[in-house]
Each structure stands twice: as C-alpha cells, then as structure tokens.
Amino acid sequence: MGNSSIFAKLCERFPVFEPRQDEPHRPLALKIREQIWHRWPEVDRDALSVTLRWYTQRRTYLLSVIAGGNRYNLDGDAAGEITPSEIEYAKKILASIDAKNLKAAEEAAAKYQRHREERERNAVRHVKAKPQRKTAKPPASASSSQQRPPVRHLSRGELAALAKARRIGG
C-alpha cells in the first residue's frame, strides 16, 4: 500500500484524520503511531511510519502545530496541549522546508533563464546564418500613364460563362 491508500484508510477508520473546515490538519497526540498499531494490528508498520511522516511534515500540519492549542487522539478528542518546545521545533522544520522550496525555486528560475538565453542565442545565430533574400524593387519613378489599371475581379457568373465558352471552344 502506498501513502495515499494508507492515508485513505486512516481517514476512514479514525476521525482525527478527517479534514474539517475549521482545522484541516489537527495536531496528533503524542505516540499516535502506537495507538494506531494497537487498533489496526494488520497495518504495514513501515508504510504507516512513512505515511505519518509525510502527514506531519506537511506545511499545513506544521502551521497547525505552530498555532498551538490541543493535540488530538484517534477519536478526534483533545489529548494534551502543544508545548512551546514543540512549537519551536515545528517552526524549525517549517523554515527548513521553506529554505528547500526557495532553493528549488531559485534553481528552477536559473535553469529557465539559461534555457531562454540559449534559445535567444540560437535564434540570433539562425538569423545571421540565413541568407538575405533580395526583393525586386519597383522602378524609382513611374509616370501615371505607365501604371497598371486596377484589377477587375470577375463575378461567379462571369467565370462560369468563360469556362463554358472555353469548353465549347469559343
């Protein structure tokens, strides 16, 4: 089972994991893993540990811990308060996550900038390498008597009549 399937089963079995409007991530009681093992003995313990680590390292969960207040047991009932040292630890983890995210964002921006500069260099090379096509220029000064008459477009009926005359040979 992956994180999402274990988490889905946790949400089905234990009310504390159900998202709520007022508290999407309620801080979990200490030793919650052992409580889960006691009430759900067939769960893969390694997968459960990975899932709980994933859940408790999420930004929204850490923010709920930083806000302080109660921790909650599997039934969703209050089970102790968050201590100041736990709040500080959550702040430290959140700062670490934010630093990693910032570094990743900066690296992505630098990569995009290098890619854009490379595209621009290639475009400049392509433009320089392309032979310039010479276009025919109209005579410098043409008198009004030498200008072409305006083009007259034929109507559909006129085109049909011309085509018929051509087929007949006339």
Describe the structure.
With 170 residues, this protein is mainly α. The protein has a domain at 3-96: Fertility Inhibition Protein O, Chain: A, Domain 1 (Orthogonal Bundle). Helices cover 58% and strands 4% of the residues. It has six helices and two strands; from the N terminus they run ααααββαα. It has helices at residues 3-13, 32-39, 45-56, 59-66, 84-129, 156-168, and strands at 70-72, 78-81. The chain has a two-stranded antiparallel ribbon. Helix 1 packs across helix 3 (45-56). The longest helix is centred in the middle third of the chain and has 46 residues, at 84-129. The radius of gyration is 37 Å and the shape is elongated.
- Helix tally equals 6
Quaternary state of this entry equals single chain
Proportion in helices? 55-70%
- Strand fraction: under 5%
CATH class of the domain at 3-96: Mainly Alpha
SSE pattern, N- to C-terminal: HHHHEEHH
Overall 3D form: elongated
Instruction: Give the number of DSSP strands.
Output: 2
> Structural class, judged by helices and strands?
mainly alpha
> In the CATH hierarchy, what is the superfamily of the domain at 3-96?
ProQ/FinO domain
Spatial sequence of strands, sheet with the most strands: 1-2
Q: CATH fold name of the domain at 3-96, please?
A: Fertility Inhibition Protein O, Chain: A, Domain 1
